[in-house]
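Bumping my old thread because nobody answered last time. Still need a sequence for this structure:
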């Protein structure tokens, strides 16, 4: 049941261990920093290492080409689900902003390093540019899509936790990914490729990649359950965002 924000503290939570209330703004979480580091690491590496290489799988004799980064990028959504489920929307929001800042710096650093003249005798410039010389339009689309998709994912996750009274975790992880990845794909592919590709190709790739990402979330559901269960036991709390300010434009806990 939803409660009026004016009648509640910033977030309503209770301890799994004792059943008593606590203040999530001052509570010291043991593993929050590690989960944040994992999120930012997956985000950056999936964009740097995987984004530049197309690969394929063969299904019924037909080759299906996809970006290698799609194998690992959805892990960011899994970790995002864990963050919201364990630590609440406000702390997940801080992590999303940390990832956003890291992406901006990565794009800036890539542009500077690629632009620097290579030393005489070094013949790796062309290969370096093919990997790190990202098209500004695609970089912009990727960053905007990440920001919007992750916030939608976290918002849906937090709201569904209240609606389900903390039960049926799989409905929240999959449901939030369906919506969050949908927003991500709807923003990224048109922004990055509209006018460069045929409209039908943009739509096909957008839907295919969205389905693949959601499928990954479904496949990883047992892993999500194991991680969430372990962290809840270790942290000893259950956070419900019954009165959280869901604006994305804040870093307050």
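Sorry it took so long. Here it is:
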């Amino acid at each position: 049941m939803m409660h009026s924000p004016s009648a509640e503290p910033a977030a309503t939570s209770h301890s799994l261990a004792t059943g008593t209330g606590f203040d999530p703004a001052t509570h010291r979480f043991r593993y929050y920093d590690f989960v944040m580091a994992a999120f930012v690491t997956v985000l950056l590496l999936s964009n740097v290492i995987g984004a530049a290489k197309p690969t394929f799988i063969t299904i019924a004799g037909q080759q299906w080409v996809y970006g290698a980064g799609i194998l690992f990028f959805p892990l960011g959504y899994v970790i995002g689900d864990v963050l919201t489920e364990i630590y609440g929307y406000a702390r997940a929001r801080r992590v999303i902003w940390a990832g956003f800042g890291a992406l901006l710096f990565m794009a800036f650093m890539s542009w500077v390093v690629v632009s620097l003249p290579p030393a005489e005798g070094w013949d790796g410039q062309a290969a370096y540019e093919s990997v790190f010389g990202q098209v500004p339009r695609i970089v912009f689309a990727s960053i905007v899509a990440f920001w919007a998709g992750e916030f939608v994912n976290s918002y849906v996750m937090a709201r569904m936790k209240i609606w389900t009274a903390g039960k049926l975790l799989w409905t929240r992880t999959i449901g939030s990914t369906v919506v969050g990845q949908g927003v991500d794909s709807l923003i990224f592919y048109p922004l990055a490729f509209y006018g460069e590709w045929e409209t039908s190709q943009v739509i096909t790739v957008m839907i295919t990649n969205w389905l693949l990402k959601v499928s990954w979330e479904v496949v990883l559901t047992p892993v999500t359950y194991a991680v969430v269960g372990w962290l809840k036991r270790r942290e000893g709390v259950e956070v419900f965002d019954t009165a959280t300010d869901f604006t994305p434009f804040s870093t307050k806990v």
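The chain has one domain: 31-115+128-235. Let me know if any region looks off to you.
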